[in-house]
Amino acid sequence: MALAHDPAFNDRTSDGAAAGASSIALDFRALSHRFSLPDRVLPVLDHITLSVAPGEFVALLGPSGCGKSTLLRLAAGLESPSAGTVTENGRPIAGPDPDRILVFQEATLFPWLTVRKNIASGLEARGLLKSHGHRIDDVLKRVRLEGFADAYPHQLSGGMAQRVAIARALVNDPKLLLLDEPFGKLDSLTRLSLQKELLQLWKASGFTALLVTHDVEEALLLADRVIVFSDRPARIVAEVAVTKAHPRRRDDADLVQLRQQLLTQLGVSADV
Amino acid sequence: MSDALTDDRDIFARTAPLSGAIWRDGLLAAASWGVAAALTYAMPDVITWGATDLFALLTAIGAAFFLAAALVVPRLSRDAATLRHYGPWFIAIGIWFALWELTTAKLGWLPKPFFSPPQGLLHVYVTDWDRLLICVAYTARLWGLGFFSGIAVGFAAGVALGWSKRFAYWGMPVLKLIGPVPASAWIPCTFFLFPTTFHASIFLVALASGIPVAILTAAGVEQVNRAYYDVARTLGANNRYLIYRIAIPASLPNVFVGLFMGLYYSFAVLVVAEMLGAKFGLGWYLQFNTAYSAYANVYAALIVMALICAGLVRLLFSLRNRLLDWQKGIL
Ligand SMILES: Nc1ncnc2c1ncn2[C@@H]1O[C@H](COP(=O)(O)OP(=O)(O)OP(=O)(O)O)[C@@H](O)[C@H]1O
Ligand SMILES: [Mg+2]
Hints:
The complex is a heterodimer of chains A (272) and B (331).
Chain A: E1 26-36, E2 41-52, E3 57-61, H1 68-76, E4 83-88, E5 91-92, E6 100-103, H2 115-125, H3 129-132, H4 135-142, H5 158-170, E7 176-180, H6 188-205, E8 208-212, H7 216-222, E9 225-229, E10 236-241, H8 253-265
Parallel strand pairs in A: 3-8, 3-9, 6-7, 7-8
Antiparallel strand pairs in A: 1-2, 1-4, 4-5, 9-10
Helix pairs in contact in A: 2-5, 4-5, 7-8
Chain B: H1 2-15, H2 24-42, H3 52-72, H4 81-85, H5 87-106, H6 118-163, H7 165-178, H8 187-193, H9 197-222, H10 226-234, H11 239-268, H12 270-273, H13 282-291, H14 295-323
Helix pairs in contact in B: 2-3, 2-5, 3-6, 6-7, 6-9, 6-11, 6-13, 6-14, 8-9, 9-11, 10-11, 11-14, 13-14
Bound molecules: adenosine-5'-triphosphate and magnesium ion.
C-alpha cells in the first residue's frame, strides 16, 4: 500500500483530479499493422478499434502469433502503426514514456545488474533514484523476492525473473501498465498470489491495465472486459464485459458460463 | 588436568589424519631440481659459459625448498592450494632444467652461439641487470603510453562504430583495411606525421592495441540484444543511458577479448616500435644483441618480456573477473 499512496511520487500529476489523474485513456482507432519480411508483407493487426477507459482493466485473448504482443508494443510506443492511430488521452503516442510501462513476455532482465539494480533502472534513468529509491524494497516485498535483492538474473528461476520484471515496472508507478503474459511462467500458487497482488495494486493506484493472457480464467478473474482476437491478422471477434464484483471466485456460475462462451469463441471445446 | 587432555586430543585430531603424509609432487620436484643441480655441478662443461656454479647452487636451493615444502605443506593449517596446483609444473621445470643443461653445456648438442645453457642466461642477469632494468623502465613508459591511449581511442571508436550506423558506414571499411597492415609498414608515414621518433613509437603501440579493441567493441555493441533497449526505453531511458548503461555493459565481455588481443599485439610490436631510434628498451635490447649474436642476452630479455606480459595478462584477468562477475554461471 505504501507503494500506491506515495504522494511524492504522484506529484507529476499536478492537476490533481482524483480518479483519472493517475491513469490513461487508451484509444486504438482503425489500427492496422504489418511487418515487412524479406519476401513478403505480413499483416498482423487488422482494423482494431478499441477504447480503454482510464483505470479500466482489459484482458486480451487470442491465438498464438495473432499479434497481441505487437498491439502492446504499439501502445508502449516502441513501434508506430502502419495505419490508424493509437492515442493516450487523445494525444497520439509518439514514443516510449515511463508513464506507460510494458512488462515483456520474456523477462529480459539486464544480466549485468543485480535484482535490486534491475528494479532501480527505471528510477535511475529518470534521475529519481534518490527521491524514490525506498520504493524498491516495497516492490521487492510485493513480488516476494526480498531475499534475492543482490542476486544476479542468472541465479533466478524463470518465474522469479518474471516477478523481477513485474517489480521493475511497478516501481515506476505507471499510469498504464501493459502486461504481456506476465504470469505465464509462474507456478499456479505464485500465480494466484500475484494475480491478487496485481488486483489490489490496480485498485489502489488506479492505473489502466492491458493484460495479454492465454488463460481464459485469469482474464475473467481480473478484467473488467475481455477482448478476443481472431487468428492473424488479428481482428476483434468478441468482447465480453465482466461486471462481477471483486473478489471473484473461479467457480462462480456466471464466470463459468462466460468461460465456456469465450472458449467457444477461441475455437476450443470447453470440455477438454 | 582435563583441560590438558582435551587440548591434547584436539591437536591429535587435527594432525592425526595427516601425520606421515607428504606432498608427493613437492618431493618429485625436489628430486628433479636436485638432479638438475647435481648434473650442473658434477659434470664438466663442454662449453664454458658463465655462472655454472651459481646456477647449480640456485637449483639446489630450489630442491631444498621443495623438499622442505613436501614435508611442511601437509601440516599447514590452511592448505596451500596454489602451491599444490602448480606441483606438476615445478616437477616439469626441474626436468626441463636438467635436459637444457645436458643438451647445451654438458653435451654440446645444441651449439654456441645459437643456444645458451641456463647459466648463460643467469650470467646475463648477473652482469647486465642494470641495463636490463633501464630497458624495462623505458619499455614500460613506451608501452604504457601507447597501450592506454590505444585502448582508450579504440574503445571509444568501437562504441561509436557499433552504435551509429553512419559511423559504421564510413568507419568499418577503413578499420578493416588498416587492421591487417603490419606495424612496420607504418614506419615511413609515422616519421612524417610525428614530431619525434618517440611519438611515432607510441603511435605504433597504440595502433596495435587499439585496433582489436575497436573491432571487438564495435561487434559487441552491435550484437546487444535489441530487447534490452526496448525495455530501457519504456522505463524512460534516453540515448545517453542506452549507450552508457546498456550498450557498454552488455558488450563488456567482447571488449575484454579485444583488450587481451591488444595486450598481446602491443608486446609483439614493441621490437618494431623500438627500432625507431630508441636508445633503450627491451625491444631495442633484443635487436642490439641479435645484431651482435649475443643470443644469451636475447633469451634473457625475452624471458623478462614474457614474464611482464604474463603478469599483465593476469592483472587483466582479475579486472575482468571483477567487472564481469555477473557472467559467472552463464559461461
Ligand atoms: N519485429 C518483427 N518483424 C517481423 N515479424 C514480426 C515481428 N514481431 C512480430 N512479428 C510477427 O508478427 C506476428 C504476431 O506476433 P506477436 O508477437 O504480436 O504475436 P502474439 O499474439 O503475441 O503471439 P504469442 O501469444 O505466441 O505471444 C507473428 O507472426 C510474428 O512472427
Ligand atoms: Mg506475444
